[in-house]
Amino acid sequence: MAIADPNQPIDALKGVGPSLKEKLARLGIFRTMDLLVHLPLRYQDRSRVVSLQSLRAEQEALVSGEIVDVKFGYGRRRSLFVTIEDQTGFLGLRFFHFSKNQQAGFRVGRFVQCFGQARFGREGLEMAHPEYRLFDTAPEPPAAELTPVYPTTKGLGQARLRSLTSQLLDMEWPSDDGTPYDSLAYLHRPPADAATDAIAAARNRIARDELTAYYLVMRHRQAAHASQTAQALPQAKKLGAMLLKNLGFELTAAQRRVAREVLEDLAQDKPMLRLLQGDVGSGKTVIAAFAAIRASEHAMQTALMAPTEILAEQHYATFSEWLSPLGIEVVLLTGSQGAKERAAAREAIVEGRALVAVGTHALFQNQVEFKQLALTIVDEQHRFGVHQRMALRAKGHTPHQLVMTATPIPRTLTMALYADMAVSTLDELPKGRLPIATRVIADGRRDEVIARVTQLLKSGQQAYWVCPLIDDSDNLPVSAVESTAQLLKAKLPGVAIGILHGRLKGSEKAAVMTRFKAGDLQLLVATTVIEVGVDVPNATLMVIENPERMGLAQLHQLRGRVGRGASQSSCVLLYKSPLSATGKQRLQVVRDSQDGFFIAEKDLQLRGPGELLGARQTGETQFRIADLHEHAGLIPEVVKRGDELLANDPATAERLLSIWAPQDSGHISV
Ligand code: ADP
Ligand code: MG
User: Fold this and answer.
1) Which residues have CB under 8 Å from 62's CB, separation 6+?
2) Among residues 29, 422, 590, 648, which is most buried (max CB within 10 A)?
3) Interval 150-209: pLDDT, tens
């Protein structure tokens, strides 16, 4: 038996060439170990042949029978229709696409074993395009194990993943290095009679390791950070008090508390690393402004990073309004600026004239030289993922860091996820905010919604109409926005309508946003690019098309674009009917709650397995096994174990890192 080497490159396995290697890399699989911890999302039971009589509609099952009839079906589309029989009954197999060879294979008297989902068709129960195998005699007994279904990527089939993992499982793995290979092997091929509990227990064991490794990474980063020095920024000129006077509103108690926490951190000569959590509209920007002012009082620079150009433009406008009267120069740095403009901004930054630089995240990563950078602020950090923390270098000292997010994270999770950071929470909305009246309406009643928009615009207020991004890779998002805009233009003659989507150039987007902010545009038809942070208090109606396709947290963020002024705002979730039961429940959660924490929890509970893959890839964390909902309960134990390993067992800590966070391993001295 071959001896497994966990760190061997994946192309050491049989059958892995450059193309497959590239696909595996997309799944984060580079070494054999990575494949070993690439665990199934779920399993199919192909261990039991279900008798045709007992087969029920919607059931996913392995069935077996003799071919008794082959014919063509003519419904809306021509199809090949094969009838099979076992001792108990009949079943139809329907193929809309089939080759000559396939067709020839189905001969009366042969046997078929197939796996698929049964549905009611015109002629009783049938399976459309089942996976099947043909036999000349009665087929072999079914699999003794559950069949794994792996997370995968385009062009990589389950059969391939199964055969690759089989190669691994046939090897001999080290027995003494403390890795739970037995649990991993079990999860790849559980016995056919495995209890759900037993599978969950094995997953827990692995998730616990993964979370522990993550916690160790965070602890290591924290230690590395704490050993550095920063420019101490104690109170100096009281410019903050001037902003307070000019603001035109009173800070909430939460804002006062959080501002104090931030400013106290800044006064230290240790670099601040603080996460500021606050629901949409809780007023995070002004906290950032106080921090930037404090740095400016010492003639030190601040970099403010936003995830989108729109948001960068908006922060630039807000900061200019707030900071210019205090004599603080603010510059903007975006990808859509002309070369000359950008060079000028960079020069102001290099020379140290500009004390505050606002820009997109990407731009700052492209090596902007600061004269004296003392503070970095990252807005809407959840867009970048937990693992991608900012690493802006400063000469000499490490800059203080403030990281802001509107993604509510339950407290238990913060313990481990942000173990490297101090956490401040804005748990209060500014006074006088009315809840946003939210309604769930079927798209058949679109005209009523349009009538409502008309009325609202007449009163001088503004509205958003958002269409979902259907697929990044094709033209649909643009056409969805454009066709909707077309329709609205036809129905709302004389209304100034703007269009905003990801395909526009940065400068075009900014121009549209500026006109909307100024009130020159009354209605903004947009993709979800406006999800993040856009602030136009006079916009009081948000219509969201196809909300059933969006995550609840995203809907909550979108809705948060309204309800920012004193007038009553509303949100219409214009869904495409019919809606599934879960779909209905999900939208009701958003309708009935304005609490981001609650909505995030519900989203985790209600999302179906189909959405899991997407969420895994794009969500805020990139865990392979651990599921923050399912495994949240493990976290206190993980924290305790991680602390113990660091104190007493660095070898085990290092091993966990080498499996789960190879890029972070090698730091713990063994
Ligand atoms: P978010 O936390 O979503 O980033 P913003 O900082 O954009 O929220 O604030 C939302 C809106 O509320 C802005 O127009 C801001 O000026 C305003 N605002 C912030 N704090 C207060 C307050 N204490 N009272 C009234 N309005 C406030
Ligand atoms: Mg914001």
Assistant:
1) 45, 46, 47, 48, 49, 50, 113, 114, 115, 142
2) 590
3) 988 888 988 899 999 999 999 988 877 778 899 999 999 999 888 888 999 999 999 999
CA angle, residues 370, 376, 381, in degrees to nearest 5: 135
Dist CA 303 CA 401 (whole Å): 10
Distance CA 168, CA 29 (A): 13
Closest ligand by atom to 247 CA: 1
Pocket of ligand 1 (CB under 6 A): 249-252, 255, 278, 280-286, 406, 430, 533, 535, 537, 564
Largest Cα–Cα distance of the chain, in whole Å? 93
Q: Is 661 helix (H, G, I), strand (E, B) or coil?
A: coil
Please list the alpha-helical segments (H only) found in 72-157: 100-105
Report which bound ligand comes closest to the CA of 425: 1
Cis omega (within 30 of 0) for bond into 578: yes
Gap between the Cα atoms of 466 and 480, Å rounded: 10
Residue type, 609: P
Could you tell me the pLDDT band of residue 543, with boundaries at 50, 70 and 90? very high
pTM, rounded to two decimals: 0.70
> Tokens 């399993």 sit at which residue?
43
Q: What is the pLDDT of residue 308?
A: 80
Task: Return the closest-CA partner of residue 133 out of 42, 60, 44, 46.
Answer: 46
Q: List phi, psi (to 5°) of 254.
A: -65, -40
What is the Cα–Cα distance from 596 to 589, expressed in whole angstroms? Answer: 11
In order, the DSSP letters of 429-470 are: PPTTPPPPEEEEEEGGGHHHHHHHHHHHHHTT-EEEEE----
* C-beta of residue 586 within 8 angstroms of C-beta of residue 452: no
Q: Hey, which of 145-154, 329-338, 452-461, 591-600 has the most confident mean pLDDT?
A: 452-461
Q: What is the pLDDT of residue 121?
A: 86
* Contacts for 667 with CB less than 8 Å, ≥ 6 apart: 220, 224, 657
550: CA distance to ligand 2 center in Å? 20
DSSP per position, 599-615: HHHHHHHH--HHHHHHH
Q: Which protein residue's CA is at the shortest distance from atom 17 of ligand 1?
A: 283
Structure tokens belonging to residue 92: 């139809």
Question: Percentages helix, strand, coil for the chain, rounded to the nearest 5?
Answer: 40, 20, 40
Separation of CA 536 and ligand 2 centre (Å): 12
Q: Are 270 and 324 in contact (CB under 8 A)?
A: no
Strands ordered across the beta sheet of 497-500: 437-442, 570-575, 539-545, 462-466, 523-526, 497-500
Distance of CA 598 from the midpoint of ligand 1 (Å): 21
Question: pLDDT of 196-249, one tens digit each?
Answer: 889 999 999 999 999 999 899 888 888 888 888 999 999 988 899 999 999 999
Burial 639-663 (b: 16+ CB within 10 A, else e): bebbeebbeeeeebbbbbbbbbbee
Residue nearest to atom 10 of ligand 1 (CA): 281
CA-proximal residue: ligand 1, atom 18 (nearest): 283
Q: What is the pLDDT of residues 48-103, one digit of tens each?
A: 899 999 999 999 999 999 999 999 887 778 899 999 999 889 999 999 999 999 99
Atom of ligand 1 at shortest distance to CA of 431? Answer: 24
Residue with the smallest CA separation from ligand 1 atom 26 is 430
Three-state DSSP string of 267-332? CCCCCCEEEEEECCCCCHHHHHHHHHHHHHHCCCEEEEEECCHHHHHHHHHHHHHHHHHHCCCEEE
